Amino acid sequence: MILGGFPSDSCGARLGPRPPGRAGSSSTDSWLRRRSGRREIGAVTTEATDADLAARARSGDDRAFGMLVERHQTVAFRTAYVICGSAADAEDAAQDAFIKARGAIGRFRAGAPFRPWLLTIVANEARNRRRSAGRRSALALRAAAEPPAHVPLPEAAALASAERRELAAALAQLGPEHREVIALRYLLDLSEAECAAALGCRPGTVKSRLSRALGRLRLELEGSRA
Fold first, then answer.
1. Tens digits of residue pLDDT in 121-178
2. Which of 8, 22, 81, 117 could form a disulfide with 16 if both were Cys (CB 3.0 to 4.6 A apart)?
3. By C-alpha distance, which of 98, 97, 86 is closest to 150?
């Protein structure tokens, strides 16, 4: 499928390695227990909405917050990976973001969407790590096209196609601002509001930035085929 002139994630792309086990669901409860009191209120079901879980977490229900961690850990890790370009830094940024989100959940506005609020924290942590490491932003598709040996990717065969390599090469020529908005919007399939939260800008800015980024990407792809 082609979106705005380049293949979307629906044709099989995966953005970087999967979240490491350290931040996985099996460790969520113990991770939370080490960092907060184990106050749980009533039963929490997997059918609960983010709003329900956030409300319970604000009341001190750690199990509810643990379910939010399990529900959003993948997108948190991959958003951080888009910004950091490093699996290790992305893992640390995502985990630190969840810890900070747990501490700040009392200030979360009731009724607001949880994921954009969380991604704002994730993106800030990821940028801090990128700055402290002295790195420039790197698109995770670059790593997906050449997977790290220690992170198995079931989709590696699909990503080895000529089309994927061509896209990765074209994206690598873009500036960090353009790479990030394309990756977040199309490869991670975030909404414009979620992209805005991750990028620290207004939704309208996402639209204009994405339009410019796709224009640059088209030029790069046309140049590579000339």
1. 999 999 898 887 654 444 444 444 444 444 444 444 444 566 777 888 888 888 888 9
2. 81
3. 86
Does the reported pTM lie above 0.85?
no
Which pLDDT belongs to residue 191? 92
> Cα–Cα distance between 180 and 64 in angstroms, integer?
31
H/E element holding 49? Answer: none
**Please, what are the domains in the chain?**
2-225 (1.10.1740.10)
- Among 178, 202, 198, 226, smallest CA distance to 6 is for 178
Q: What helix, strand, coil percent values describe the chain, rounded to 5?
A: 70, 0, 30
Cα 171 to Cα 178: distance, rounded to the nearest angstrom: 8
Record the tokens describing residue 7, joined without a space.
Answer: 């293949």
- Please compute Rg for the chain using Cα positions: 18
Please report how the helices 62-84 and 114-133 are oriented relative to each other, as an axis angle in degrees rounded to 10.
50
For 2-26, how does the pLDDT look when each residue is reduced to its tens digit (9 = 90+)? 333 333 343 334 445 555 554 444 4
C-alpha span between 101 and 183 (Å, rounded): 24
Q: Alpha-carbon distance 135 to 86, whole Å?
A: 10
> Are the beta carbons of 73 and 20 closer than 8 angstroms?
no
CB contact at 8 A, 186 and 6: yes
